[in-house]
C-alpha cells in the first residue's frame, strides 16, 4: 500500500521548504551551526532530500547548480519539470509520485541512477539520450508493451533494470526477452541474470534480435542521411545560396504561369524553354559555387579575428598577472607591517604609502586595459574592413550574374513573342498548324489574350529573379552588420577586470584606519 493513502495536505515547493530541507541536513556540530549562521550557499549543495513532503510541483531549485543527488520520492508530483538545469545530477529519485509521462530529463547527461518506480507511467520515452545511466527503476507502473522498453538499448552502460509490477512483467518469457535484447544487463528486477539465461535467451530470440538490429541500422542510416541533409541545407543558408544548385529558381518562375504549358505545344517554344532552363541553371550553379567559396573565406576571416583576439587577451592577462604578482608580494609585506604598528602617526603614514602604491597599481592596470581595448578595437575595425570588402565583392558578383539571368529572360520573352506573332498570323489566315493542342488553338484566336499572357509571364519571371537577388544581397549585408554589431556589443559589456580588486584594496586600507580609531 502506498504511503500516500490517508489524510495529507499537499504543499508547494517554495523557498522556505527548500531552505528548511537544506538546514535539516546541515551537520548539528559547531561547524554546522557556523554554516547555518553565515548562510548556506545553495550553489555549493551537493545533496538535498525533499522526500515525504507532500510536494505537488518541483520548483525553486534554480540556485542548486552543483547538485548531484536529489530525493523527491514519496510526494504528490505529477509532472517532471524544473530539474533540466541540474546538469550535474547523478542520482534522481522520483518514486512514489503521480507522474504519468517521462519528460524534462534530456539535459541530465550525467545521470547514473533514475528511480521512477510506483508512478503512473505507461510509456518509456525521452530517456534514451541519458547515456550515463547505469540504474533505472520503473517498477509498479503501467507498462503494457514489451517492445516499448527496447529504446533503452541505446543506453550502453545500463546494467540494472527494474520492471517488476508492470503488466509486461506478467508476460510469458518476459525475463528471456529482456535478457536477449539487453545483453549488457546484469540485474533484472533485483535478480542477477545468469549466463545460462542469457544463452537460452539469445537462442530463442536470435531471429527477432537480428531483425531489430537491421531495423535499427536502417533507422540510423536514415537519421544520419537526414542530419547530413539538414547540415548541408544550413550551410547553403549560411552562404545565402539555398536552392541555387538546381532548377528550383527556374521552376518557381513558371509555377504561377497558367499559359506556360499551353504555349509549349506551339512549335519552337519547347526547345526555347529547354535551352532557357539549361542556361539559367548554369548561372544559378555558378552563383551557388561562388557563394560557398565566399562563405568559406568569410568564415576563415571571422575565425582569424577570434584567434587574434584570444592572443591579445592572453598577452594582456600575462602582463596583468605579472604586475599583480609583483604588487602582491610587496603589499603582503606592507599589510603585515600595518597589522603590527601601534603608533597612530606612523600607521597613517604607512597607510598613505599603501594607498599611493594602490594608485600606481590602478594606473598600471588601467593603462594595460586601455591598451587591450585599443588592440581589440583595431582588430574589430580590420575585420569590419575585410568582411565589408568580401560582402561587397560577393554582392557585385551576384548582381552581375543575376543581370545575365534577366538577359536570358528578355531573350526568351522576345523569341517566344516572335513565335507567338507568327502563329497568330497563321491562325488568322486559316492555316492549319499540326501538333498544336486544343487549348493553344483557342488561345491563339485572341491576339490581345496571347500578348497579355506573355507580358504578364515576363513580368512575373523578372520578379522571381529580382526577389532572389535582393534576398541574397540584403541577407549577406544584414549578416555583416549583425556580426560586427554583436562583437562590438560583447566588448562593451566586458567590465574592467581590475576595478573590483582595486576597490577591495582601498576598502582594506579604510579598515586599517578604522581599526586605529
Highlighted features:
517 residues, Leucine-rich repeat, LRR (right-handed beta-alpha superhelix), 8 strands, mainly alpha, eight-stranded mixed β-sheet, single chain, 2 domains
Explain how this protein is built.
The longest helix is centred in the last third of the chain and has 85 residues, at 344-428. The relative contact order is 0.06. The chain is built from twelve helices and eight strands. It starts with 14 loop residues before the first helix and ends with a helix. The chain is flat. It folds into two domains: 15-204, Alpha-Beta Horseshoe (Leucine-rich repeat, LRR (right-handed beta-alpha superhelix)), CATH 3.80.10.10; 259-516, no CATH class. It has helices at residues 15-25, 30-38, 174-181, 195-204, 206-238, 248-255, 260-263, 269-339, 344-428, 438-443, 447-493, 499-516; strands at 47-49, 69-71, 91-93, 113-115, 135-137, 160-162, 187-188, 191-192. By secondary structure, it is mainly alpha-helical. Strands 1-2-3-4-5-6-7-8 form an eight-stranded mixed beta sheet.
Sequence-ordered SSE layout with sheet pairings:
Layout: H1 15-25, H2 30-38, E1 47-49, E2 69-71, E3 91-93, E4 113-115, E5 135-137, E6 160-162, H3 174-181, E7 187-188, E8 191-192, H4 195-204, H5 206-238, H6 248-255, H7 260-263, H8 269-339, H9 344-428, H10 438-443, H11 447-493, H12 499-516
Parallel strand pairs: 1-2, 2-3, 3-4, 4-5, 5-6, 6-7
Antiparallel strand pairs: 7-8
Helix pairs in contact: 3-4, 6-11, 8-9, 9-11, 9-12
The number of distinct structural domains comes to: 2
Strand content: under 5%
Order of helices and strands: HHEEEEEEHEEHHHHHHHHH
Helix content: 55-70%
Task: Label the overall shape.
Answer: flat
Sheet with most strands: 8 strands, mixed
Number of strands: 8
**Average of per-residue pLDDT values:** 87
**Count of separate DSSP helical elements:** 12
Q: What distance lies between the first and last C-alpha atoms, to the nearest angstrom?
A: 70 Å
Computed Rg? 37 Å
Uncertain segments: 29-38
**Protein structure class:** mainly alpha
Spatial strand sequence of the major β-sheet: 1-2-3-4-5-6-7-8
Amino acid at each position: 500500500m502506498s504511503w500516500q493513502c490517508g489524510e495529507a495536505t499537499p504543499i508547494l515547493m517554495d523557498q522556505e521548504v527548500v531552505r528548511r530541507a537544506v538546514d535539516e541536513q546541515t551537520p548539528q556540530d559547531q561547524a554546522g551551526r557556523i554554516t547555518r549562521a553565515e548562510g548556506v550557499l545553495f550553489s555549493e549543495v551537493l545533496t538535498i532530500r525533499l522526500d515525504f513532503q507532500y510536494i505537488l510541483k518541483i520548483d525553486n531549485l534554480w540556485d542548486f547548480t552543483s547538485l548531484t543527488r536529489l530525493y523527491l520520492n514519496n510526494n504528490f508530483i505529477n509532472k517532471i519539470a524544473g530539474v533540466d538545469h541540474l546538469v550535474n545530477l547523478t542520482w534522481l529519485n522520483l518514486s512514489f509520485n503521480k507522474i504519468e509521462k517521462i519528460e524534462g530529463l534530456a539535459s541530465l547527461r550525467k545521470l547514473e541512477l533514475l528511480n521512477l518506480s510506483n508512478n503512473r507511467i505507461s510509456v518509456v520515452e525521452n530517456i534514451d539520450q541519458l547515456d550515463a545511466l547505469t540504474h533505472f527503476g520503473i517498477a509498479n507502473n503501467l507498462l503494457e508493451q514489451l517492445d516499448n522498453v527496447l529504446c533503452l538499448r541505446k543506453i550502453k552502460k545500463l546494467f540494472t533494470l527494474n520492471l517488476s509490477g508492470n503488466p509486461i512483467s506478467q508476460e510469458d518469457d518476459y525475463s528471456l526477452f529482456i535478457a536477449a535484447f539487453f545483453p549488457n544487463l546484469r540485474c533484472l528486477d533485483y535478480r542477477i541474470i545468469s549466463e545460462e539465461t542469457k544463452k537460452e535467451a539469445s537462442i530463442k530470440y536470435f531471429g527477432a534480435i537480428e531483425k531489430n538490429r537491421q531495423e535499427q541500422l536502417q533507422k540510423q542510416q536514415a537519421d544520419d542521411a537526414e542530419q547530413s541533409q539538414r547540415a548541408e541545407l544550413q550551410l547553403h543558408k549560411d552562404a545565402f545560396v539555398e536552392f541555387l544548385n538546381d532548377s528550383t529558381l527556374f521552376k518557381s518562375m513558371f509555377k504561377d504561369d497558367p499559359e506556360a504549358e499551353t504555349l509549349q505545344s506551339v512549335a519552337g517554344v519547347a526547345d526555347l524553354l529547354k535551352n532557357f532552363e539549361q542556361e539559367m541553371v548554369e548561372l544559378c550553379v555558378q552563383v551557388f559555387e561562388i557563394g560557398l567559396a565566399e562563405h568559406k573565406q568569410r568564415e576563415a576571416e571571422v575565425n582569424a579575428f577570434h584567434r587574434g583576439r584570444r592572443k591579445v587577451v592572453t598577452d594582456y592577462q600575462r602582463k596583468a598577472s605579472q604586475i599583480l604578482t609583483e604588487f602582491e608580494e610587496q603589499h603582503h609585506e606592507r599589510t603585515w607591517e600595518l597589522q603590527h604598528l601601534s603608533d597612530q602617526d606612523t600607521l597613517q603614514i604607512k597607510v598613505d604609502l599603501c594607498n599611493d602604491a594602490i594608485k600606481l597599481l590602478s594606473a598600471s592596470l588601467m593603462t594595460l586595459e586601455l591598451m587591450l581595448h585599443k588592440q581589440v578595437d583595431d582588430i574589430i575595425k580590420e575585420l569590419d574592413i575585410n568582411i565589408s570588402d568580401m560582402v561587397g565583392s560577393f554582392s557585385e558578383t551576384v548582381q552581375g550574374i543575376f543581370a545575365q539571368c534577366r538577359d536570358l529572360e528578355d531573350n526568351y520573352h522576345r523569341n517566344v513573342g516572335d513565335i507567338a506573332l507568327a502563329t497568330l498570323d497563321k491562325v488568322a489566315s486559316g492555316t492549319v498548324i499540326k501538333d498544336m493542342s486544343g487549348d493553344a488553338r483557342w488561345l491563339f484566336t485572341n491576339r490581345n489574350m496571347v500578348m497579355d499572357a506573355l507580358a504578364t509571364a515576363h513580368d512575373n519571371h523578372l520578379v522571381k529573379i529580382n526577389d532572389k537577388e535582393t534576398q541574397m544581397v540584403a541577407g549577406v549585408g544584414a549578416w555583416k552588420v549583425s556580426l560586427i554589431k554583436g562583437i562590438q556589443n560583447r566588448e562593451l559589456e566586458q567590465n574592467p577586470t581590475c576595478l573590483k580588486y582595486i576597490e577591495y584594496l582601498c576598502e582594506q586600507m579604510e579598515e586599517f584606519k578604522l581599526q586605529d580609531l
